[in-house]
Amino acid sequence: MARLADYFVLVAFGPHPRGSGEGQGQILQRFPEKDWEDNPFPQGIELFCQPSGWQLCPERNPPTFFVAVLTDINSERHYCACLTFWEPVEPTQEGPCARDAAAREEEADEGGSGALSPSAPGPPDQLFAPKTLVLVSRLDHVEVFRNSLGLIYTIHVEGLNVGLENVVGNLLTCLIPLAGGSQRTISLGAGDRQVIQTPLTDSLPISRCSVALLFRQLGITNVLSLFCAALTEHKVLFLSRSYQRLSDACRGLLALLFPLRYSFTYVPILPAQLLEVLSTPTPFIIGVNAAFQAEAQELLDVIVADLDGGTVTVPECVHIPPLPEPLQSQTHSILSMVLDPELELADLAFPPPTMSISSLKMQDKELRAVFLRLFAQLLQGYRWCLHMVRIHPEPVIRFHKAAFLGQRGLVEDDFLMKVLEGMAFAGFVSERGVPYRPTDLFDELVAHEVARMRADENHPQRVLRHVKELAEQLYKNENPYPAVAMHKVQRPGEASHLRRAPRPFPRLDESMVQWIVDQAAAKMQGAPPAVKAEKRTTVPSGPPMTAIVERSGGLHGNSARRLEVVRNCISYVFEGKMLEAKKLLPAVLRALKGRAARRCLAQELHLHVQQNRAVLDHQQFDFVVRMMNCCLQDCTSLDEHGIAAALLPLVTAFCRKLSPGVTQFAYSCVQEHVVWSTPQFWEAMFYGDVQTHIRALYLEPAEDQDPFSVGEAPLQGDERSALDVASEQRRLWPTLSREKQQELVQKEESTVFSQAIHYANRMSYLLLPLDSSKSRLLRERAGLGELESASNSLVTNSMAGSVAESYDTESGFEDAEACDVAGAVVRFINRFVDKVCTESGVTSDHLKGLHVMVPDIVQMHIETLEAVHRESRRLPPIQKPKLLRPRLLPGEECVLDGLRVYLLPDGREEGAGGPGGGPALLPAEGAVFLTTYRVIFTGMPTDPLVGEQVVVRSFPVAALTKEKRISVQTPVDQLLQDGLQLRSCTFQLLKMAFDEEVGSDSAELFRKQLHKLRYPPDIRGTFALTLGSAHTPGRPPRATKDKGPSFRTLSRNLVKNAKKTIGRQYVTRKKYNPPSWEHRGQPPPEDQEDELSVSEELEPSTLTPSAALKPSDRMTMSSLVERACCRDYQRLGLGTLSSSLSRAKSEPFRISPVNRMYAICRSYPGLLIVPQSIQDNALQRVSRCYRQNRFPVVCWRSGRSKAVLLRSGGLHGKGVVGLFKAQNAPSPGQSQADSSSLEQEKYLQAVVSSMPRYADASGRNTLSGFSSAHMGSHVPSPRARVTTLSNPMAASASRRTAPRGKWGSVRASGRSGGLSTDVGSRLAGVGPPQANGAPPDPGFLRPQRAALYIIGDKAQLKGVRPDPLQQWELVPIEVFEARQVKASFKKLLKACVPGCPATEPSPASFLRSLEDSEWLIQIHKLLQVSVLVVELLDSGSSVLVSLEDGWDITTQVVSLVQLLSDPFYRTLEGFRLLVEKEWLSFGHRFSHRGAHTLAGQSSGFTPVFLQFLDCVHQIHLQFPMEFEFSPFYLKFLGYHHVSRRFRTFLLDSDYERIELGLLYEEKGERRAPQACRSVWEYVERLSKRTPVFYNYMYAPEDAEVLRPYSNVSNLKVWDFYTEETLAEGPPYDWELAQGPPEPPEEERPDGGAPQSRRRVVWPCYDSRPRAQPDAISRLLEEMQRLETELGRPPERWKDAWDRVKAAQRLEGRPDGRGTPSSLLVSSVPHHRRSLGVYLQEGPVGSTLSLSLDSDQSSGSTASSSRQAARRSTSTLYSQFQTAESENRSYEGTLYKKGAFMKPWKARWFVLDKTKHQLRYYDHRVDTECKGVIDLAEVEAVAPGAPTMGAPKTVDEKAFFDVKTTRRVYNFCAQDVPSAQQWVDQIQSCLSDA
Fold it and tell me: Relative to the CA of 937, which of 20, 639, 680, 874 has its CA 20 to 30 Å away?
């Protein structure tokens, strides 16, 4: 029972103490005067009586009534029913009132004036003051309060004859039951009667009509958002002008929240004086009068609901999470059906006549029923996630939030997450979690109606029926007795408030009221307490929970198969079938992304632990750890699915023995997961385990079976859940004796305590890293740190709070010590222990004990871990494949041994299993090695399905162009690791992630060493020079014993002289020359004159070539003559050095040694071709007009038109350009130009006049207008059409007689004739365009043309006007600069090797990036210019190419022109000469452009030479039969010109090479044959062994000029840029590529028949050319193989090929029985080769030599011939010439005794009957004859005797002597028969003579 009213209070108006206009409330009387013991008087009632403030009123207002709610300190609500009426203010009354309130005199008059001031200017006769009757109660019976206060007011106003004291006394003593559905009639003793009905259960809120009104005022959507806001702890503010409406709205909102109770600030009516409460940081529900709307608008985070206007305003910064779908939409639709039933029928044609509309009260209950269902759906199954932590003395219950979210499938749902974290839900758990208590509607609904609700989901009518049923129950709860006896309460008459009241409300007699109260109290004491016993039961748990939405796991639909795979893999691991397990592992790791598979893994492993199989070997351990890590990596910090929880017991069970006494458990390998540093996870785990143990305490032993996992909902069969056990125990508790109770409490407490110790251990296992000296991974440590600062405040509404400073900020993470880790872990565990122990009621003594224990536990564990860490370091890391050591070149040394890395895919499809074919070879796991020459990765693919393929990727250190650090995930464990990305200009990219075992210091060392090798401080530090070189820094050069001055001294003299010469000059103009190597790396000193610049005048003596050269100079000359240039000049007929001094002037050009000391131009060769008429001393002056002193010199002459090609650097400001800018041609008399310009003009004139055609040519047309055309534009501008064809007939005639030309590509045969408007048209003037962008027919070029075209840079030749009298003409073109080449190449690299896999790989994206690079456009321009020059030369004009500094684009153009014009340069030997002459001798700056040293690092890599090779490759594609070398040869040079393996492409000029002693090596120095220093030597050696550089389609037509198409559409991307072989790395280091692809010996069956065994060739892995060689290579290999099998030394491939070609030519003869022609490419004319066939010594026996005529049968030839595959360093292919040009009658090997005191030596002897000689050579393929015995001088041939030093094993009869007139030669054959043969042959020769 409870009092209906606790206090009755009378509050009246009183003036404000500070005299403001407002008054304040004063309590006139309160009853009872002293507080009740159980319920003190609430403070602040006077504020709540008049929430808008106490004010006087000019007229009398009707009485008002509302109920305010006050909450006391124990969060009990007090309902204050307030009835306010107005009484006139008596001026006399004011004084006593004021004094009554406070005994101060001055207030009276102030108050009076203040009160009168607001009166209107009307008659000031009256003001009215409010007075309030207040009833304070803890019960919520609003109507009873309204009636009771109304009765009191009525008695006062109507003057009824009833004592007010009696009424008040009765009111205060009226007792009514709290609940239970009783009905009570009360009377206050004024002839009144009221019936009070109590609700059936007090747990259900009473709402009357408030919910329905709320929906009517605000609408469905708004109320739903308010509902969500209140649940997720946002601030809600109601506004209305009506106080009653405010309290109703607040009451309605609270009723909706049932079964949760709102536990924050709740003030339905907030007084004006307390408005600042609105800025509180905690959530609230508050109502405020609409008059204060303005104040509400300033609040930024408050949701404002305006009841009068029907709006809800949500500020921008507030996000209200909506209900999870589909609940949101379902709830919405049901609400609309309840509120607006006509909506469903609105569209019907024949609506039913009447609709039964529920009453407002009923509608209210229906709306509440909807929300009750909603909660039942949301919280369904919540009891399965309750943890019973304690049962006695009071139940302690915790809710496993994560498991609930996980099993409902709502992990991501913001709404539910916030609700579960909120205070209301915590209250719900502690109140409703109790297993034994009275139940209510919600409990039944959530336990029994879930299935029905699920079934009804899609049937709105059924849902509605359910809602109505629930509404009935709710209504019945509020109104248990429908037939209510009528109330009878007197009310005042109409408008009674306007009548003048007889008197003010009287003062009541306190003592009388008190007496009535005391009487009632005394009566109560005697009566027994009428307590209705609560019916307590076990709360039903209901069905286990299900997900709100069955999310169809599209990803893991076929989960049964996946689980099967997981189970199989685990059983393989435990059965030790590691290979099987390895195969399944990738599938398992993929499957473990699904929840079911992870749970299955935990269960399977659990079974193995139970079967006592927890001690594993290393491999098993490894597999188990990997699978666990994979499971855990997808776990969130909450572990919703209980995976980490299931694995926790397992990680402490599985272990491996490292050494005796040292065991490593799995936990040390699975620590890197965020879940372990989450306190909520540990709490949930702890409570779960505690529950299991507490349950076990009370179960019979038979029942005690440990359920498998914490979050696992259904427990099988009749097993009782912990809640059932607890409920039973709570029921029995009162019946137990005190001792028994004590004992149980103690048992439970010690259970919790022991679990706390257990968990302190467990947590230290998972939080302390294995290597405690290293600080933890950042995120892990941050995790621990975060929690130290976590505030569990209400403000932030999240558990961990926002992250304040991580712990220990000063020390930072880097230098944190081990103790720091320990400290952090101890603090973490202590916080955990504090929290769980206080929550679960552990005694304070025990808690103190725990705090002492934790540091010891941690310390002990650290000590154990140290041993484990030490031992595990010793373990061979078995899971990692063993490092595959790369094969090294001779002389290549390892600088850094293998660092374990993962090679990651880099965006190329090859190797990544893309459409390029083949499996995913990358990512691969292996190691990166750094050698003196290369960076090499070797490893295996991480995907075990690929198989045991070795992946190799390497590139020369020198080719490195960019290195950047990256942070990437390792492919296996997905950990973030440091990595490196290395990009090379050989189009390789190593994108590597370092293995975790590689420390950052090792990685840093790798970078530093790489940098050191890539950019040595000095060129002498490069691989080519350190390899077996005498010049190794730090080693003194050996003194060489030699008769003449050595080449080394020569080069020294040369440099010295040059320096002397240069030193003598005075310097007039400083300009850049590349610094010599002594000056690289340091800036030249300021004061010292730049000795590298070349000055104006040289002493004449040094320049005039005198016939009497000093002997050392003569040596220099002879060595210069040996250079490539000189050999080529002689071939071209441009003169020889010997004749150049004394020859007749008929030759137009001569070789000038003017630059032999490199004094005029550092970057030119020593010998230059200049016009005959120019003296050497004039050259010095000419050179000044050109950049870098590179004056024009001849580099090629056309054999047919005799036109010459010249090259030079660009012009300086003065010079030709100045010349052209002069108005008219300067005559010698009035020349103002300086001497050098004149010299230059003379020089050009000399060039022109040296050409036979132009020596006397007079009138001619010029190429005017050429200057206006860009090279880039394809249609010339109109101005370019100046020149016209003077005679069309002549033109066509000349076209007929034009020299033969050959047009591009085998494909483009059907071309239309006509002229091109491309480059050529600017020569001709006009002409129709030609297909394919081909240059024009040569016929259009007219005979009268400029003698010399100077091709210059457009920018340089601006404003030049051609002069008609000159014989030369300028052709300005636009060229690109070196930096553009560099930029373009960078983009090309990115396009071909992107660096990271593309998001959507498509051919288009590659082509787009290729186009952006503009590489092909540059190649197009180069080819275009070159073809233009070829045309000019072919038509007889000379051309001077004078671009940039004369060493980049000039070199490209000049080389291409020669290659196109002269077939010689298209042979292997010719191409070598071309590169040596134009690129090396003429000073292309290889070291500068390739950034070979530290000094060049900033300039970067500029691939000028590579671009030239690409152009050659484009021409090769279009003319495949014109080149003797194969495309591989070009790639080979492209690779090795940057690799620095050979010395050929080092340094910037011949001068520098001489200075370093590289150019002329001493003959004595050839001691190490293995190290080829020159790339040419290497090519030559390799060509002897394999046809890899040879083009079988080579069938040149004589004197061909090639004119390739240059349009971008005709160009192809060079496969050098895109192809890659992962099987062996780049194929350009031939020794490293594993031999020719013959099938291995053991595969061959004994019969030796050809193999037909097939093998898989992966395009992305194997080298296709090696795996599937072309037919000819294959046949040549087959021949070699068969010969080897027959036990004969195999023949050289070239000999066999030449024989085949020769036989092909013989086929035409009638008796020719040659090989079938199908073997040959075509029957195009071939070079004739006479057919000599030889036998050479095999392992035994002599060698016979037969001379076969060409027409003898080829069949026998093939079988009997033999040729040994010997290496030779002689000139390429020269052996074949010797074989053809000489007549060899008989040949073979003989030992010959040397002259006096010389040993016996084996020599190759040739008996030549024709020349009547016996010649001998060093060996079979030697081209130089070492000696001749003239048979005419032979006197006798006789048997000889062995002498000292003769071969031991030979029979004595094999010796014979040949006696000549000069001396006796001693010979020894290999055996007796061959000796006899020789003697017979020589004898027959002698007799023939």
Answer: 874
| Among 896, 906, 925, residue whose Cα is nearest residue 981 | 906
Neighbour-count burial of 661, counting CB atoms closer than 10 A to its CB (0-12 exposed, 13-18 middle, 19+ buried):
exposed
- The Cα–Cα gap between 702 and 910 comes to 64
Q: Which of 1196, 1030, 1076 is nearest to 1483 (CA)?
A: 1076
Pick from 1010, 1001, 1023, 930: nearest CA to 962: 1010
What gap in Å lies between CA 1864 and CA 1858, rounded to an integer? Answer: 6
The helix-helix angle for 595-610 and 618-633 (nearest 10°) equals 140
Tokens of 1223: 């108005």
CB atoms within 10 A of CB 189: 15
What is the radius of gyration, based on Cα positions, of the chain? 54
**Are the beta carbons of 1350 and 1369 closer than 8 angstroms?**
yes
DSSP 1276-1301: --GGG-----S-HHHHHHHHHTSPP-
pLDDT of residue 580: 83
CB 401 within 8 A of CB 386: no
**Separation in Å, CA 373 to CA 366, 445, 457, 1734:** 11, 8, 11, 105
- Phi and psi torsions of 993, nearest 5°: -110, 125
For 1178, residues 6+ apart whose C-beta sits below 8 A from its C-beta are 1239, 1242, 1243
Residue 766 has phi, psi (to 5 degrees) of: -90, -15
Percent of the chain with pLDDT over 90: 23
At 47, the amino acid letter reads: L
Q: What's the burial of 300, exposed, middle or buried (CB within 10 Å: 0-12/13-18/19+)? A: exposed
Run of H or E including 238? strand 235-240
The pLDDT value given to residue 125: 66
**1647: its two tokens:** 């019969």
Q: How many CB atoms lie within 10 A of CB 1644?
A: 16
Crossing angle (nearest 10°) for helices 164-173 and 142-158: 170
The two tokens of residue 1020 are: 């002498």
Answer whether 329's CB lies under 8 Å from 338's CB: no
**Tokens representing residue 109 in the block:** 């008059």
Reported as a single tens digit per residue, the pLDDT across 1395-1407 is 877 666 677 788 8
Query: Would you state the pLDDT for residue 622?
Result: 86
Q: Looking at residue 1320, what is its pLDDT?
A: 40
Name the token pair of 22: 């407002």
pLDDT over 60 (residue 750): yes
Q: How far is CA 1054 from the centre of its chain?
A: 55
Write the pLDDT tens digit of every residue in 1456-1481: 999 999 999 999 999 999 999 999 99
The pTM for the full model equals 0.54
Task: Decide: 1499 and 1491 in contact? Cβ < 8 Å.
Answer: yes
Tell me how far apart the alpha carbons of residues 755 and 764 are, in angstroms, rounded to a whole number. 14
As given in the structure block, the two tokens for residue 813 are 């993470």
Determine the Cα angle at 390 with ends 389 and 393, to 5°: 165
What is the helix, strand, coil percentage profile of the chain, to 5? 40, 15, 45
What's the Cα-to-Cα distance from 351 to each of 345, 356, 358, 463, 695, rounded to whole Å?
A: 6, 13, 18, 22, 61
SS3 label, residue 827: helix
Overall size of the chain counted in residues = 1889
* More confident site: 450 or 1740: 450
CA pair distance 1212, 1191, nearest whole angstrom: 11
| pLDDT band, residue 1753 (cuts 50/70/90) | very low
Supply φ then ψ for residue 287, to 5 degrees: -110, 140
**Which residue in the block uniquely carries the two structure tokens 């030249």?**
1084
DSSP states of 1135-1158: --HHHHHH--TTSSEEEE-TTTTS
Which pLDDT tens digit goes with each residue over 1637-1652?
443 333 333 444 444 5
**SS3 label, residue 824:** helix
- Any idea what DSSP says for residue 1733? -
